[in-house]
Amino acid sequence: MSTIRLTAAQAMVRYLSVQNNADGVPFIAGCWAIFGHGNVAALGEALYAAGDALPTWRGHNEQSMAHAAIAYAKTLNRKRAMAVTTSIGPGATNLVTAAALAHVNRLPVLLLPGDVFANRAPDPVLQQVEDTGDGTVSANDCFRPVSRYFDRITRPEQLLTALPRAMATMTDPETCGPVTLGFCQDVQAEAFDWPQAFFEPRTWRRRRPRADAGQLADAADMIRAAERPLIVAGGGVHYAEATETLRDFVETHGIPVAETQAGKSALPWDHALNLGSIGVTGSSAANAVAETADLVIGVGTRFQDFTTGSWALFKHPDRRLMSINIGAYDAAKHGAFALVADADTALKDLSAALGTHRKTGPDPSLKTAWMASVDTVTAAPGSGDGDNRLPSDMQVIGAVQRSVDDDTILLCAAGGLPGELHKLWKTARPNGYHLEYGFSCMGYEIAGGLGAKMARPDREVVVMVGDGSYMMMNSELATAVMLGQKIILVILDNRGFGCINRLQRATGGVSFNNLLDDARHETASAIDFAAHAASMGATSEKVQTIAELETALSRARAAPGCYAVVIDTDPMPTTEAGGHWWDVAVPEVSERKEVGDARAAYETGRQAQRLAD
Q1: Dihedral (C-alpha) 304, 310, 313, 319: value to the nearest 10 degrees?
Q2: What is the pLDDT of residues 401-443, one digit of tens each?
């Protein structure tokens, strides 16, 4: 057997550089790195030697580097991924939040945190976390519950099994998610005689399992028997690249579609059978049909609480659930009839089984009325509205919508914007709406915008972000500038955490510790976001009105590099149309009458919940 002598770090880099997807391009597009003790000497040297075979990018924060990597994979429907390496200690634990985000969203990322010395000779090393009752524990054990596959490399030859397992996990549609390989720093530098065959190029093809024939027949019978079926399109529709198949299915069989946050843009916004968003942030059209649906067909969705209105949305007394999902775990949730299969193949096979069977479809006036509501709240203020008043999030969304084209990728993650965007944004192309709402992680937005642009340099990326999320994590704007990856930021400054302030008020509380002016302070906050963005290399400006915002966005689109536009907004208004109850527990006991009233309303809402069938 022919062998080659390499360090463990060199072997890892060489192996990753020759793992290809079905399109013949490397599955691991490159590696984000912040070097420190634990990865700089060995893995850093190996990455340097690899050059363009496995490119290395430098970030400013470990968590945000991973966010960029995750957004890259999401934008490409999981066909490619990135690696992220850090030092031990805080560099490693900074990745844990991002690992959880990737786990919840079923997105591949390879995390390579440095680890302690396997030989334990210098223990305890700088930044080492010690468990006084377990000598095998390190900080990297934090990754176990948020990784789809976890391993600690304590011998070089363990990579012979660990790396293929890592690739199999990330490329399999059911197990897809974050992989963590804690890489002991002394082991990275150790040499081993590796089989040359280990470094032969390998192609990893997407698995597309078909549904069981008996289950498929039962599913077709359920649809035939239903009088008012509704499809709930989730992120799995995009990951399976099944948007055209979904369109063919609904047009053939006349079944309306509602979209989750991850599923939005599965159908064009103006498709007659696309009723828009569903659930807590749902359209009036989708929620009206959902309330009376006797068969709810989930396609690639986890049936999260925002989607189901905390399981109080589907009110038909004889309602049944069907879940088409690649993952048996997700397919079986809440007693659903599980059709475990790839979304694309399942819809095609199900359509063939249904033949010419067709439903009447919903009353078109439901969508017409909803779209009229959307156009009203997103319209620019009229001359009599006082153009200098603080605009609402809805008006800003309308201005951005009018300023971009159909190929734009709109990206957001947390705060009040995701709810308004889910309801109001009109997406004409698949993957034009990029919301991280499985984990709703503040700080994802700017790094995510960078990752999305790296994935699709041919599409304009517009990031809408509130001042709260911007302050939480903004440093990868400097990275985007440095790498020449243009993103446009629209920064909405409502002086704090406006969304959670509204929730606080809605549950009977007073505004407390959310808006900056209501938080304990000695000096009023006065952050110049335009100056801050400019300090990182972006062109920036602050505008006062919706009209000025649209003009600024025209300049932003024409500009060659990153551009930030800041606008002050009102923290209180939200879209009144649509929406649904959400289970947020209110205190049973309080001295405040407002809390008591909110608790009574909460108890009423809970009566509509159906936790099991």
Answers
A1: 70
A2: 999 999 999 999 999 999 999 999 999 999 999 999 999 999 9
DSSP 3-state assignment of 523? coil
R_g over Cα of the chain: 25
Q: What's the 3-state SS for 561-573?
A: CCEEEEEECCCCC
Question: How many degrees, rounded to 5, is the angle at CA 358 between CA 357 and CA 363?
Answer: 165
State the pairing for strand pair 191-195/3-7. Answer: antiparallel
The answer to whether residues 420 and 310 belong to one domain is: no
Integer CA distances (angstroms), 432 to 57, 186, 263, 426, in order: 26, 44, 11, 9
293: nearest Cα among 351, 228, 243 = 228
Report the candidate in 252, 251, 297, 250 with the shortest Cα–Cα distance to residue 278: 297
Mark residue 403 as left, alpha or beta (left: phi above 0; alpha: psi -120 to 50; beta: remaining).
alpha
Query: Structural domain of residue 506, as residue ranges?
Result: 379-568
Helix, strand, coil % over all residues of the chain, rounded to 5:
40, 20, 40
Total of domains in the chain: 3
Chain segment 281-315, per-residue pLDDT in tens: 999 999 999 999 999 999 999 999 999 999 999 99
pTM score, two decimals? 0.97
How confident is the model over 331-377, as pLDDT tens digits?
A: 999 999 999 999 999 999 999 999 999 999 899 999 999 999 999 99
Q: Which residues contact 356 (CB under 8 A, 6 or more apart)?
A: none
* Overall average pLDDT of the 55-84 stretch: 98
The answer to the question of residue 609 being in a domain is no
Closest CA to 575 of 391, 393, 306: 393
